[in-house]
Amino acid sequence: MTNNQNDKTRRSKATISDLSVLQVPPEKLICKLSFTHLVQLLTITDQLQRTFYELEAIKGNWSVRELKRQINSLYFERIGLSRQPEKLAQLVHETNNTPAQPADFIKNTYAFEFLGLPQKALVTENDLEQALLDHLQEFLLELGHGFCLEGRQKRILIGDEYFFIDLVFYHLILKCHVLIELKIADFNHVNAGQLNTYLNYYKAEVMRPDDQPPVGILLVTHKNDALVQYATAGLDNQLFVSKYLVQLPSKEQLENFIRNELR
């Protein structure tokens, strides 16, 4: 065997050894999870991803239904994309199955890796909007539970001037309209003002007596948290500024998170 082959063998063994460290002890799995949990987990072929859900299911005392829900909502991918994974994990476990506030449904970061578009290809907001609608099922899954698409480029008349809202949803759990504006740019306070205007219109002209006030989501490529704070302070409306990503995090990022969880 050549030195090259020896090196490859050593690296392969090291990788297997590293992955074995990131495993939940079998006796703990059997003690903490039901047979149905284990059957569901065995459908996950990626070992790192399976270990993640094993840990989270044990920590959160999840039912099988909740485990399936978290897998379907791409919790594993979102935890890697989040700038504050510990905070996201805390939110997931605190809200459990029935979050009731808009903040529980609106993510800090949305992952649009299913679009298959490199960032440089996102030339206009129309391109992104069309790509999202072409992958509507995945987009709704990334948004979370309860979102139903109501319209695209929804035209509204304010005074004698027409305006167009990029995407309008109705949220079945919150019982309110959700207005989404897509911006291929950094956060700008003008965009926040524009969306706030639309929310005021919906509150006055569209909201039904049994509806909750409308919610706005401004999707931007980058956000200055301090600017967002000052630009949205004092607004009566529920307006959220979220960053979107078109690529998944590296495997190393996810491994580091799981290592921290195992400590």
Describe this structure in words.
The chain is α/β, with parallel strands linked by helices. 51% of the residues lie in helices and 18% in strands. The chain contains 13 helices and six strands. Mean pLDDT is 79; it is low at 8-17.
Shape: elongated
Order of helices and strands: HHHHHHHHEHHEEEHEHEH
Number of helices: 13
Structural class: alpha/beta
Distance between the termini: 39 Å
Tags for this entry?
single chain, 263 residues, alpha/beta, 13 helices, elongated
Summarize the structure.
The chain is built from 13 helices and six strands.
SSE inventory with pairings:
Layout: H1 3-21, H2 26-32, H3 35-41, H4 47-60, H5 64-72, H6 75-81, H7 85-95, H8 102-105, E1 109-111, H9 125-134, H10 136-143, E2 147-158, E3 161-171, E4 176-182, H11 189-206, E5 215-220, H12 225-232, E6 238-245, H13 251-262
Parallel strand pairs: 1-6, 4-5, 5-6
Antiparallel strand pairs: 2-3, 3-4
Helix pairs in contact: 4-13, 6-7
